[in-house]
Amino acid sequence: MPVAIISGASSGFGKACADIFARNGHDLVLVARREDRLLELADQLTKEHSVQILVRAIDVRDKEAVDRAFGGWAAPYEKADVLVNNAGLAVGRNTIDEGFTDDWDRMIDTNVKGLLYVTKAAMPYLKAAKGHIINVGSLAGHEVYPEGNVYCASKHAVTALSKGMRIDLVKHGIKVTNISPGLAETEFSMVRFKGDKDKADAVYQGFQPLSAGDVADVIWFAASRPAHVNLEEITILPTAQADSRIVHRG
C-alpha cells in the first residue's frame, strides 16, 4: 500500500487529510505535538479503513526530535509516496512596531524551519518512492495584508521553498505542489487570537468559509494525479472571498 506522511495531523487540514488518504488506501505516518489526539485518530482510522499507522508525537520546531522520529523506518513506511507539510500557524495580529518577537519566532520556526526539518528527514523515503511533496501554504504566501507582516513573510517563504524544491528534486522524479488556501474555518483563528473566541468567530461571520475537508479534497486531488502530472500551485478560496482583504459578507 502507498504511504502518506502528514504533519500537523491532529486537527484541521492535517486531520482531514489523514481521513481522505486512509479512505483511499494509504498507510499513514501521523505527525503532531498532541499525542492523545494522534492516538485517537489512528485508532479510529485503523478500525474504519484497515490501514497501518505510525504515530510520531513531536514538535516540528525541534530538529533533533524530528530526526529521531524519522530514523530507520521499516516496511511499509520505508517508501513514502506523499509528504503533506501541513504543520503551521499564525500567532497574533499586530503592526510590525507593536509585534511580539516570541510570536514571530513561533511562526518562523514552525512554518519555515519546521517544514524544512520534516522535508529533510523524510527525503530518503521520498527518494525511494519518487514521491510527492505537498506544502500547505496560504493565500498569505502571495499577498500581504495589514498586520499580517511576519505570518505573510513565513508563507511567502513556503511558496518560494516549494519552487526551490521543485527545481532541486525534479532530477529524482519527486513532484512538488504548493497549496494556498484562503479563509478556512479550523483552529487557525483561535490560535492566532490566543484563545479569544469572539475574535476568532468574527473572522468567519457573514459568509461560508472553506472547511478542512474542502482543502483536504484538493490536496488529495493533487496527490492522485497520474505519475507524469504535477500540479504546481493551487489556490483555493471560498466563493465569497476575492483576495486577502475583500470578502463579501452578505
Describe the 3D structure.
This protein is α/β, with parallel strands linked by helices and 250 residues long. It has a single domain, classed as Rossmann fold. It is 43% helix and 14% strand. It has 8 helices and 7 strands; from the N terminus they run βαβαβαβαβαβαααβ. It has a 7-stranded parallel β-sheet, sandwiched between helices. α1 packs parallel to α2, α1 crosses α8 and α4 runs parallel beside α5. It is globular, with a radius of gyration of 17 Å. The model has no long low-confidence stretch (mean pLDDT 97).
Features:
250 residues, alpha/beta, seven-stranded parallel β-sheet, 7 strands
Distance between the termini: 46 Å
Low-confidence runs of at least 5 consecutive residues:
none
User: What share of residues is helical?
Assistant: 40-55%
Please write the CATH class name.
Alpha Beta
The figure for the number of domains is 1
Label the structural class. alpha/beta
Order of strands across the main sheet: 3-2-1-4-5-6-7
Radius of gyration (Å): 17 Å
Backbone shape: globular
CATH topology description: Rossmann fold
CATH architecture annotation name: 3-Layer(aba) Sandwich
Number of strands: 7
Instruction: Kindly report the average pLDDT value.
Output: 97
CATH superfamily: NAD(P)-binding Rossmann-like Domain
Q: What portion of residues belong to β-strands?
A: 5-15%
Largest sheet: 7 strands, parallel
Number of helices: 8
Element pattern in H and E: EHEHEHEHEHEHHHE
